[in-house]
Amino acid sequence: MKNCLIKPTLVLVCLALLALPLFAQRGKGGSGGGGGGGSTGCALVSPPTVSSSTAIAGGESVGIFSKVTNCSSGKARYTVTISAVSSCGEETILASSVISFSAGQSFLISKAYSVPANTCKGMGAVYVSAYSGSTMLATGSVALNVQ
To answer: For 82-91, how does the pLDDT look when each residue is reduced to its tens digit (9 = 90+)?
Structure first.
């Protein structure tokens, strides 16, 4: 009689212990952050501005400024990247950071960029983008004329 009670009890305890990680995963997710979760979040990126005049020479530096806002109603973690694309189509990632936002919170983003002397001359662009995991939520760009 003891075996009839002990074996089913052990099976139930083992199943409960195995199911605990699955229940813990359900609490994760929400908006933002990397990994699973059904919701991707909400971000706004203001169009970036640059500190140069209309044209910049290779070898000179320029300042890049933008604002990134969490437009979701909860906390979120977004990856914010700043990149430059030359007129030849070569992309350079200038900065990439994971930033934790509260609901409605904004951050001002700035980066100094030394344009390489051998950069292709012509109209390029600077991009500021916000990602939740691998999903791009928002991006802003500004033209950068290299002469």
So the answer is: 999 999 999 9
* Residue 57 maps to a domain: yes
Q: Which tokens hold the place of 81?
A: 């990247």
Amino acid at the residue 62: V
Residue 121 identity (one-letter amino acid): K
CA dihedral of 109, 48, 140, 97, whole degrees rounded to 10: -20
Q: Do residues 55 and 145 make contact, with C-beta atoms less than 8 angstroms apart?
A: yes
Question: How many structural domains does the chain have?
Answer: 1
Q: Would you state the structure tokens that stand for residue 42, as one six-digit string?
A: 């909400």
Residue 118 lies in a domain: yes
Domain that holds residue 110: 43-146
Q: Which of 110, 108, 127 is closest to 69 using CA atoms?
A: 108
pLDDT tens column, 68-118: 999 999 999 999 999 999 999 999 999 999 999 999 999 999 999 999 999
Could you tell me if residue 119 is inside a domain? yes
CATH code, domain with 56: 2.60.40.10
H-type alpha helices, 27-135: none
Q: Is position 123 within any domain?
A: yes
